[in-house]
Amino acid sequence: MKLKNLVSKLTVLEVKGDLERDICGVQIDSRQVADGHLFIAVRGTVADGHNYIDKALEKGAVAILCEMIPEKIAENVTYVKVENTEQVVGQVATTFYGDPTSKLKLVGVTGTNGKTTIATVLYEMFRHMGHKAGLLSTVCNYIDGEAIPTDHTTPDPITLNALLAKMVEAGCEYVFMEVSSHSVVQNRIGGLTFAGGLFTNITRDHLDFHKTFENYIKAKKLFFDRLPKEAFAITNADDKNGMVMVQNTKAEVKTYSVQSPADFKAKIIECHFEGMYLNINGKEVGVQFIGKFNVSNLLAVYGAAIMLGKDEQEVLVALSAMKPVNGRFEALRSPSGYTAIVDYAHTPDALENVLNAIHGVLDGKGEVITVCGAGGNRDKGKRPLMAREAVKQSDRVIITSDNPRFEEPQDIINDMLAGLDEEQMKKVIAIVDRRQAIKTACMMAKSGDVILIAGKGHEDYQDVKGVKHHFDDKEEVRACF
Fold it and tell me: How many of the other CB atoms lie within 10 Å of CB of 158?
């Protein structure tokens, strides 16, 4: 593609060199640059791309998009200056990859909890209905049936557009995507056209990045503010910020609720560890999911499918065939009669939801033992809150390690324990080694009890001092069985 076409939609402040040159690749990582590429120098949260312009030139870059043209400019290289490179990366990537979202129906899911379940169930459902579909999620990206490993909830704009272009090539009609608050603020989804957006809920998370809860809310809301008027916006009326999210959107607004009148409504008729019977908009359906929070998730799925033009009966039949997502409220029954539940819950709110769901099924007939920790180098303020939430709804709690990263595991555990008073501490033991913690919980459990192992869910590693060591909660539980 000609460089002039690539920057045609941008407000260009200055050009040095030839805009007629051909560009065969676009990169924001100088290590990925090859001959004939355009390198975009972005001022990131960790590093400034302007410091890597020389590296990109060594690798063969023929054009540089930047906020500051270097004093010393290279021969046969074109420099294009714009005000803010981070804001235009998405637009450049979209143009280079042929505007893939104009050929797809892209639905974004945002919120603190439930994003992975909703996006994945929508992807599975539409494939079940015979459509080719793509998924962009925390657990894995999929181009129809082909799995592509993932590092971030929402990839950078170039990786994102390259994936979407491959989805178009593979014949996908629909793509379901988790949209993180980081990606909205950092313009990773800039240039994409969404057919719809879903809001799950919002509770304390990522304050290490957003600094305040208000900033976090604004980041989520910005996604809905930018939706086009042809799109739909489905929001959770049960969340106190649900209507705040859509108050300035141009999209068609729909609501879902398990508590009050809404466009998409549900109530639980019956609940077991194997699943639930629900009434959704007046029709009964059996599903293989558990817990009130999952009723909300399934309502969001149901609503999105209806807004994408699907028949109500077809949607309900497909819902009944869907299975829970890997590491999201996965129930494992032990030979000795207790149940272990592995879940990704890593916020106070998610822990509360999962424990509520367990109590909803147990109905006082068995004890709850919770194993949980908190990640290192992340929001420290939620640590005591998580410990309090675990103690409030458990008979015994084992505080342990969960991806300590570059912090000392014992320091993280101490931060969690600091949230408990003397009476609460009587229920708690701390075991730094996660394997031992799970083993201890299994030794404590009696027939009819439930062990909740929270925090890691689908993850099959422990992140310690920058090294990922293999560790899978489900494998550990099965070994104890």
Answer: 23
Kind of pairing between the strands at 461-464 and 450-454:
unpaired
Look up the pTM and report it.
0.84
Answer whether 198's CB lies under 8 Å from 134's CB.
no
Residues 6+ apart with CB under 8 A from 288: 274, 275, 320, 322, 323, 324
CATH of 330-480, picked from 3.90.190.20, 3.40.50.2300, 3.40.640.10, 3.90.226.10, is 3.90.190.20
> For the chain, which ranges sit under pLDDT 70?
151-154, 204-211
User: Tell me, which fold does domain 3-85 have in CATH?
Assistant: 3.40.1390
Distance from first CA to last CA of the chain, Å, rounded? 58
Residue 450 has, within 13 A of its CA and on its CB side, a CA count of 26
Class (C level, CATH) for 100-321: alpha beta
The reported pLDDT for the residue numbered 217 is: 87
The DSSP bridge pattern shows strands 339-343 and 330-333 to be antiparallel
Work out the angle between the directed axes of helices 348-362 and 292-307 (0-180°, nearest 10): 110
- Structure confidence by residue, pLDDT tens digits, 429-440: 999 999 999 999
**How is the chain split into domains, by residue range?**
3-85, 100-321, 330-480
CA 289 from centroid of its chain's CA atoms: 19
Dig out the tokens for 155 from the structure. 């990839």
Q: Are 328 and 357 in contact (CB under 8 A)?
A: no
At 153 the pLDDT is: 61
Condensed to tens digits (0 to 9), the pLDDT of residues 306-334 reads 999 999 999 999 999 999 888 888 889 99
